[in-house]
Amino acid sequence: MSPSLLASEWVRGKMIGSGSFGVVHLAINKSNGSLFVVKSSDSQEGNQSLQNEANVLASLDSPYIVQCLGKEVSVGENGGHPKTNLFIEYMAAGSLGDVAEKLGGKLDEGVIRVYTQEILKGLKYLHDNGIVHGDLKCQNVLLGSNGNVKLADLGCARRLRSNATTGNRKFLCGTPLWMAPEVLRNEALDFSADIWSLGCTVIEMATGKSPWGELGVSNTMAAILKIASSNELPSFPREFPKSGLDFLNKCLVRNPERRSTVDELLNHPFIKGETKAKKPEYEHMFSPLSVLDIGLGDDGYESEDSDELEETKLRSKIPFSVRCYEKQKSPKHHTESDQMVSQENWVTIRS
User: Fold this and answer.
1) In the chain, at which end, N or C, are there fewer CB atoms within 10 A of the end residue's CB?
2) What's the pLDDT score for residue 261?
């Protein structure tokens, strides 16, 4: 993890997300004009989540995992909880969920293959380092402007005591519709839990809807009980290739010991098969427009430094790839996913 920025070295921009951990802002480094994301919390639970994410990311270095740029912890006001700011690299295209929505709600089969392969490479890196992601879904997969994929939001991640198939009990964290049945039953945590969530994420990419979408959100506990205790599987996408359906059958096995591993899935025909699909490039679709679009000081949030900064000064330091699209319309999301709200209002739970 890089040395943390001092409070005087960066400026907080507009709020672009919120979640169970706290809030997310876009921010700018005053010295070089580079953009990054700040995840902030002043609650005990939120601080624990951000500290966990920082600790996990500090030990990782992979092109398939989002980079942590540092953190900052300040003393709480009036004896309250300290405030944690976690600095995360900026991914211009937002989340895979944002991209799917921008492209009509679901992705083509060939693009799904390419993205799934890169997600698997990120999971392989985590699992080889003894880490379970714990909350894999489209909203927690970020894309750069060139379409590169990085896994993000590791607030639910856990490092297993060993690479064995037993992990921590008494720990429940994730988004219910993407969580493996044994996790919802609060049984031993294992790498295979990520494989189940991967299958749910592929369904999400292929349908543009949450897995288990037929359950709705009117009765959360009933849905959780059904996922945890029944013998059913989420509905597979229609008009999906046989190799894709077989891939899902390898991921969505209720017995975690029978699920395929990351290495096995990387060699599955659905992933290894030839495809002419290329990752779309999103720079023209998602790049911030200008300093004004970044929202410096316009979100009602007090800046980390008291000096007023001239827009023209900062504008001269904004990368050209950002400045040249000023006439385009800004998207709603550019950042690590909103941890609290996922598709159809399912929430990330932490215990």
Assistant:
1) C
2) 99
Binding site residue list: 39
Contact 93, 144 (CB under 8 A): yes
Question: Among candidates 77, 1, 7, 16, which has minimal Cα distance to 339?
Answer: 16
pLDDT tens-digit series, residues 136-155: 999 999 999 888 999 999 99
Mean pLDDT lowest among 55-69, 83-97, 271-285: 271-285
Inter-residue contact 17 to 24 (CB < 8 Å): yes
Helix (H) or strand (E) holding 41: strand 35-41
Q: Could you report how far apart the first and last alpha carbons of the chain are, in Å? A: 27
Active site residue 338: no
Domains belonging to the chain, first-starting first, are 7-92+288-323 (3.30.200.20), 94-279+341-350 (1.10.510.10)
Closest CA to 234 of 210, 259, 212, 213: 212
Binding residues for ATP: 39
As given in the structure block, the two tokens for residue 347 are 């929430």
